């Protein structure tokens, strides 16, 4: 049978390119879990995916109710779940004030981390039930959360501190930042990516042996053309792609990045659990090192426990 992969945020950028790459193999049915139904449907058609290779289902990660609703709707289709890809993200580098999810969490961490945290916890049960030979859960990470890299050292740097802001609800009353500091949209995004990478490792430690599920994260390269940078100033959007192409040489096309993520979904040689994958300039994959904070097991455990409380699992 075909494998079934759920991809969040498959309506543009990396998620769409991955959906397309998987559909093109003829071996996958992709559930495009998206907040904008019409946009997702149009996106799938624009890249030439055929009807039988995908289903669009509504998911707004900025609402925990919507996450639960999505899980119910997915279960009602009675399809197996073989791979979950947590890909969607918001980035608000120029926001002066925080905005908030339906439950009142700062939007970047609320969407990128807490929405995916609840989704992955609920869907783990479905993954366990699948009889697919290589079941995987992938959470897209980023170099920007890794302070052991050049890109990760561009201020403001990611830093979760002692999680005091998250523990106090991340609702703007005490703080809207995980470390309890003043709001900074670029930092909130980087912090959320550190959470994604910590969550992947904590899932691996807690569930890999018991379930056989492969947990992985990745940095697909700098996909400087995606919608992620839509809220950045126009000059940045103009100069960022050529800067990445010719100066840092970290640039990767959406198509190439989609192929990389599709490898993490289905390539037998990328089946190891607990790994953060990256690619060399010649497009060969390797197991990359995470920064001290993004691989801190104690912080991962604490993040897990605080997140469970916020999303109502504890
Ligand atoms: P895009 O902005 O193109 O894609 C993000 C996707 O997330 C869109 O489909 C968007 O939906 C969706 N999304 C945003 N908010 C929500 C929500 N509340 N509920 C459901 N879906 C939502 O960016 P990219 O493709 O670049 O980003 C994809 C992933 O890649 C992210 O995890 C990002 O952190 C990561 N990444 C990107 C890099 C890059 O250089 N671009 C580098 C490293 C990592 P909609 O279409 O409706 O807006």
Automatic annotation (TrEMBL):
Pathway(s) the chain acts in: Porphyrin-containing compound metabolism; chlorophyll biosynthesis
Taxonomy, superkingdom: Eukaryota
Subcellular location: Plastid, Chloroplast
Cellular component GO terms held in the UniProt record: chloroplast
EC number: 1.3.1.33
Gene Ontology BP term (one): photosynthesis
GO MF terms held by the record: protochlorophyllide reductase activity
Membrane-spanning residues: none
Protein's job: Phototransformation of protochlorophyllide (Pchlide) to chlorophyllide (Chlide).
Name of the protein: NADPH-protochlorophyllide oxidoreductase
Species this chain originates from: Arabis nemorensis
Section of the entire sequence shown: 86 to 399 of 399
